[in-house]
Design goal:
By secondary structure, this protein is an all-alpha fold. The protein has one domain. 83% of the residues lie in helices and 0% in strands. The protein has six helices and no strands. Helix 1 runs antiparallel to helix 6, helix 3 crosses helix 5 and helix 4 runs antiparallel to helix 6. It starts with a helix and ends with a helix. The relative contact order is 0.11.
Length: 173
Amino acid sequence: MNVIVSHLDFILPAVLVLLLAVYMLRKVLNHDHSRRVFEYKKSVAKEVVSLRMQAYERLALFLERMKPIHLIPRVQQAHMKSMSLHAALLQTIRSEYDHNMSQQVYVSDEAWDLINQAKNQLLGVINDKVTTVSPHSDATELGKQILEGSSEEQEWMIDEALRFLKKELRDNY
């Protein structure tokens, strides 16, 4: 017992120095880890901002392309029948929507809901107007009906979704 007590003079300071060294090393390593995590998040944030900007651009382009005044001339071909135009319009809208569906992860849920409502409103107008013309009539007749129907709509969800996307982009970036 006497031997242990006599050795405490140098064992106790050595243990205290060891504990202090472990504490300091742990602090330094934690600080270094935090700095590395911060640098990683900073570099990822630059990429994410770029991806988000591209998503807003793509969704704005999608909405602009879905406006009937832009959609019909792009899809309608010479000597096309109204039934064919109807099918082509639906296919074009669904195809473009499917192509841009992944962009929803970069915008708010509210923005994505407005985009869906805009698409559904457009599909509703097209499906409503196709019943007003003969399936074998010229596609121009259906095109005119859809354009007239689009001017009758009080508020196009496409325009509201575009305004919301622009506002959200300005507010967040």
